[in-house]
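Quick one: structure for this chain?
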Amino acid sequence: MMPKFLKRKWVKQAIMSLWSKRDDYCGKCSQILTTISEGLTYSACAK
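Got it. Here's what it folds into:
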């Protein structure tokens, strides 16, 4: 059973557009996380 609001066309379109962009978001997030973890590792090792 799908909730009623998911049956509305604009909601589906919004979800689909977000879903198609998820790879962009994932790529950016992983880059940011990698940068942060590298920075933390560097500062921890520098001591």
